[in-house]
Structure formats: C-alpha cells, structure tokens
Write a structure and sequence with these properties.
The longest helix is centred in the middle third of the chain and has 18 residues. The relative contact order is 0.14. The chain starts with 10 loop residues before the first helix and ends with a helix. 46% of the residues lie in helices and 9% in strands. It folds into two domains: 212 residues, 3-Layer(aba) Sandwich (Rossmann fold); 56 residues. Bound molecules: 2-acetamido-2-deoxy-beta-D-glucopyranose. 2-acetamido-2-deoxy-beta-D-glucopyranose binds next to helix 7.
Length: 322
Amino acid sequence: MAAETRGCRPWGSLLLGLLGLVSAAAAAWDLTSLRCNFGTFCECDFQPDFPGLECDLAQHLAGQHLARALVVKALKAFVQDPAPTKPLVLSLHGWTGTGKSYVSSLLAHYLFRGGLRSPHVHHFSPVIHFPHPSHMERYKKDLKSWVQGNLTVCGRSLFLFDEMDKLTPGLMEVLQPFLGPSWVVYGTNYRKAIFIFISNTGGEQINQVALEAWRSRRAREEISLQELEPVISRAVLDNPHHGFWRSGIMEERLLDALVPFLPLQRHHVRHCVLNELAQLGVEPRDEVTQAVLDSTTFFPEDEQLFSSNGCKTVASRIAFFL
Ligand SMILES: *[C@@H]1O[C@H](CO)[C@@H](O)[C@H](O)[C@H]1NC(C)=O
C-alpha cells in the first residue's frame, strides 16, 4: 500500500511501524499490550489514526468531497462510540477508477496497525473467493463461519467485499444477520465490526447527476448526498447482479451510508498524475502530465468532460511515458 511514504503519518505511529517491522512478532505484541494499558483502544491491532486518514484523503483523493466527508464522519462517530448498537456498514458506489478501492485501502491502513496485511482485515473478491456459482451452498457456509470465527477472535474486524456487482446472488443473505442490531452472541462483540461493500452499481446514475450539474453550471461541490442517495439506492435495488439483490440488506436498512464517488474531470486526472509522480519520487514534468492526459479518453462525446476510467490506469501509463 502506497500511503506509507506519503507524509501523513505522525512520528509516533511511524516509529511504531518501523519497530514493528524490525522486531520479532512477540516483541511487537508486547508493545501492543503496553500501549493498551494506556491507550483508549485495546482491541486486536485496531489503532485508528484519524488525523493521518484525513490528511491522506485531503491530499490524495481527487475530486470526492462527498465520499471524503461521509466516510470520516461515519467512522469517527462509530469508533468513538464505546458501545455501538450495530456494526458500521458502508457501501461505496461509483464509476471505475474514482477512488473506491483507494479509500478502502486507506481505511485499513489508518485503522489497523498492519493495514491491509492485518490479521483482522478480511478482503473478499468474487473472482478469487467465490468463482463458481454452482458452489454457492459451500460458499455460504464458508463465509458465515469465517465472519463468525473472525469476529469471535476480534470484534474490531474489517470485512471488505469487492466487486459486489459480480457476486452470485444469494451469498450475501448469510451476512444479513451480522449487519443489524440483533446479532448478539458472545456479548456484544459483533457490533464493533466494520463492513465495506464496493461496486460500480449506481456509477452511471451518479455520472448523470454530475453531468446535469455541470450543464446547469452548478459547482461540483454543490452536488449533495440527498440527490445522489435515492438514485444509487434505486440502481442497487434494480440490479439482480448486485450481491444485495433480495438479501434483505437494503430492505432492512442495514446500510449506514451509501457513499457516492463522482466521475473525474481532467484536473482530477492531473491531480492523480502528480500524486503518482510524487509517490515515485519523480519531479513533476509537464510533458509527462500532458502525455497521460492526452492518452485519457473522456465522455460524453460532445463535452469530453469525465475520464472513462477515472484514474485507474494513470500509474501504468506514467511508467510508459517516463
Ligand atoms: C477468518 O477469515 C479468513 C478468510 O479471510 C479465513 O480463512 C479464516 O479461517 C477465518 N478465521 C476464523 C477463525 O474463522
């Protein structure tokens, strides 16, 4: 994960991170328990760093005023609540390359000491974990026992589900009981978990709202959650290929937030190029930025407004033009 080198981490956690790397696992655990005696959080390797998260989002997430504010607000409220009444359930929606996976990896990075490699961060991808529709019954059993098992080990677990629109319907219904307020086994452990679902569903509808706003000369920042929520919600409910299809998750209102990602404009792609160059330790060069922008396709055809794949291929194209 890229965030390590980006200068948003306070010295304390950077040093701890280094110590964790060089010392043996046992020593690292001692360090954790030591911190736990004094710290507010003493749950597995859950160690939220909100200033770091906010700084990184502000510097590196291009063009997503809604997602940025919403994610931070929801997480802070949830994490600061010592006895949440239900797990935090976020569903991220938007066009390809708009930052959904980036945001989820930042969350793992700034919430858990081990980031995406933490034993308490669980990442599921349909093509890797659930490829064969004919094995659905086994997948259901596996998923249920994994979630239950992992939550028994650590209540503060993060479960990430990628490409929800490529998931065979039916699987998600086993998750439904874990997402609500009623699931209480072994105390209230289950209610401290965080679930994040990612999909492109609703992306076209979000793009349409952004395009109409642009055509009527409204600032992008004026686009509100209130106008996007219903269109995303409808798109999910109408999509039989989305994992929530008939799972009861939408119907029972188990999602705490639908997080919209807006389509990216030319200046956002430029922002991504500059981020990427900084990441590589390369001085910004106009001809590289220009070459990447020139090789980006934009839509709709007339206005040439939004990047067809957001910032998704920026990194690989930079490598080509350097
Ligand atoms: C936790 O989840 C992983 C999949 O991410 C699974 O392989 C493992 O068996 C689970 N652990 C427990 C204790 O259920």
